[in-house]
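#dry-run=false #mode=assembly
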Amino acid sequence: MKPNTHQIAIAGVMSAVCVLLAVTGLGFIPFVAGISITVMHVPIIIGAIAAGPAVGTLIGIIFGVSSMILASVAPRGPGDVFFTDPWVSIVPRLFIGLAAWAVYRFTQATGRTSTVALSGLTLSAIVLAVAYSVSTAEFSLAPLVGLVTGALGLGLVAMALYRATRAHPEQLALSLAAVVGTLTNTALVLTALVARGYIPATLAQTVGVTNGPPEMVAATVITVAVIAAWRQVALRPGGASV
Amino acid sequence: MISYLTTGQVLPTGSPIHRLDPRTRLLGFLVLLIAFISTSHVGPTFLALMAVIALVALARIPPRYALKSLWLLLPWLIVIVLVQITLGVGNAPGCRSLLAWGPLQLTACTLRSALITLMRFAGLVLLIGLFTWTSPIPSLVRGLEALASPLAWTGLPAHELALVGVIAVRFIPTMALEFERLQKAQRARGADLGGGRGGFLGRVRNTLPLIVPIFVLALQRAERLAEAMEARAYSGGRGRGRYARLHLRRADWLALGLLALFVIIILWT
Amino acid sequence: MAAAKPLIEIHDLIHTYKGNGTASINALQGISLTFRPGEFVAIVGANGSGKTTLARHLNALLLPTRGQVLVDGTDTRNRASWPATRSQVAMVFQRPEDQIVATTVEDDVAFGPENLGLSTSEIQSRVRWALGTVGMWDLRHRPPHLLSAGQQQRVATAGALAMRPRCLVLDEATAMLDPVGRRELLALLRELHREGLTILLITHWMHEATLAKRVVVLDAGRVAFDGSPRRLFTDLDQLASLGLEPPPMVTLAAEMAHRWPDFPPDLLTLDELAAALLPRLPHDGVAPAYYPALPPTRDTPPVVAVHDLRHTYLAGTPLATAALDGVSLQVHAGETVALLGPTGSGKSTLLQHIAGLLQPQTGQVLVNGQDVNASRTDQRDPAALAQAGDALGRRPVGMLFQQPEQQLFETYVGDDVAFGPRRLGLDRAAVRERVRWAMETAGLPFDTYKDRFTQSLSGGEKRKAALAGVLALHPQVLLLDEPTAGLDPQSRRGLLATLRHLNREQGMTLIIATHTMEDVVALANRAFVLDHGGPVTQGTPRQLFREPDLLVAHGLGVPEVTALMHRLRAAGAKLPADVLTVTEAITAIKGAPA
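#status=ok
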């Protein structure tokens, strides 16, 4: 699928934004206990939503290559060295744009109920994955803790979905696309790290569970803020809150 | 960091590597990259590492630079290797045990695994570093565009990808300068960028005064850029002329020959 | 000369598009124009008149909703002929940065010819010729981010010239340039026109329109005037009805006709005016005194004081540049002080020091007697501390940066203006009050604009919104970095009026970095001239304008009216040298004994 001039331009500038977020440190948001989550993949999501899956993939390639180069030339932490391997830095990023775009298109094409249903499925899957990881061996906690976490999590999901049914449809669509896009990034990168034998599966699970959800939240906040400002979407019916 | 972005990373030592055709350098880089990531035997990895070290020396890179990036990563690498040994990565039944010291169970297999990991990453870091030290951006861009033509035959949008890369590289320094100004402007308005208050969600929201304008500015820029490109008759990558003529010289053929030899040896071992 | 075949023909062009929401907007409502080879046409009109839309029809970037555009006889709807059309009609856009695609100057100029599929040798010869014509061949290896705006615009022009066009369309190409850059570009255009290139200059500067041989005025999507600039500008009533401002020379000339009934009508340029006035003015007698200079007698301590400030960027690296080299100045409460200097003189750096955003290597910056950098306990956010306000939440120093419309990030205007006050921790009612005051003062009525989408505002409106955001912090001292750069005349007038109101009626101290001399006249009590980071001279505007050569030597200029006075004085007329406005000039000339 040949990208047109407009798509090439967007892909180019969004790739530049990815690199900018990385080198200025803006793309790292401190989470807890010295761990930072990253939002450098958000330009891929926004590019895909704005201009299609081809654009998302192009941005993914450039972002992957740049993260490979930065890992070698300006590493920030222990995990960075693994990103010198293109299987880890480039290949997973090829799919983020496609996933985000597909979800976004789906929500445009179907009604609110289907979107909410999809959101529910996605979020429940995430919650159950977290609950499962919490309850298995490496945390050495009883399965009961896992059950409790799962129940709490599903409760939160239900609440979120209830709010989602009353939210602006665009916000729902963007949030879901951001969540799925981030999920793709996290899942595929961790899979690559395990498949290449760099980290054990248990560690991958831990990292996924601790970093994944906050990254999804951050990506959602940013994606919604950017698209709302850019496309002038009236997320709040009354206008400014001043 | 901003100054690094605006001035680049090339070390112009005028070595034979620098004087090669950018396509040759690109191909060499790709071949070695693939060598490092696709083998899981000690022999080929070692060979690839030696090749990279030889190239770094040939490129007359001051040891200070070459070692700097390795030096940064070395502690992490050692930690990783130790963790891998502890976790028994690469272990299989029947591996001869070499050392048993508390949690550290060193077997021949895990040692082999650790060695490969060390060599692979040291090699990758040096290789990528070498590439950035010897490739000025304009020549890299020309090399990419030149290589894009044969690739485009396979149906991949290679020209378009090359142009996307060019645009990205072109705008990174510009955006870095704009980012600095934006940061000062928002700070002057009282923005608490990246400050610790408000919990995680608060921290995310604190980045918005910087992140949203960067994105909006970029999207607006893309529209204007597309207009400017079309005004100069851009209509896709096919049939485009080329400003710079690239020539393969004797040194390039020699390099390509060595590369082919390298590939054969790697495949054989 | 026999009528040459028209280059561009526009027949009943109508262009409609969907705005935000469902309303259709008629950008162009039936335009018919013809452009012939060798013409130099200026296309003017207020914001929203359709000039930009019209421009984009000339090279098939936009296609007509109804009607027809023919370029060299070919309809622009004919997709296959677009490459040919775009080689014949080349365009230079408003923002220099956003036209340059490649990583070096020469690669970018080659972009166009490459798109045309020309041979390598042809491309190389065109690049060489184009860069040579604009005077940028020596900088061909340079990356674009290391060029000034004026240089970038010349590169963009070279890129257009490399298409070997018959016609060059410039869409407000001088809007983002400083006076030097603008002068150079216009000189280039005159040169290109002399060599036979058709020039279509879209601009909102009346002065540029006087350079053309033909002016087309657009008003609400229709052609309101099409004729010679002389005919347009000397008919003051017509100008007023079109919402355009007459150039200062024209206003002056019109008044001269009252003084001397036989004064030649239809004068347009400074040269013409000087030539007509000289014989009518006294060459002997007592030269009238200069306007009395008012030495500022201040015994109150200054609100801003800078002592021997030095600042070097990237100190200790091979790229170190001295931005400020021993600058001292004092500003008293209620003053408006202008910082004048060419690009790179250190004005922005100085402002950032006063705002507490930069730390000096040597020297001191005091605001209200307190060292801006001394109370720095939290190294992570020095600006916040330097900005620490008093109990009322008033911060001493507020700053409006260049192109401040880029800092708007909220979806709604009201929220963005409220950002500062909210961060101060004020309660909801207080925030609302501040936002209301700030927006009204800046010229954006609160109730109308607070719920508007930020991105739906025009450039001038966005700048006002950014100003409101800074005003909402109730600064005592307001720093402005080139506040009128890139604005259309109407927005500029509005902003200057706002600033004058803030200073004269609200007592806000203003420090304005600018290179637009007309801004200085409108606002400043005093001005400092900087160049290469060091002080050059200072004084009231009148004092400075007595030495135009010094100003020109440092990349500045004087208002046209002042330049006229100097020209007449140099030829022997006895007139005051430090005239600032057209009104003063009229008075001076009329008052001169016959």
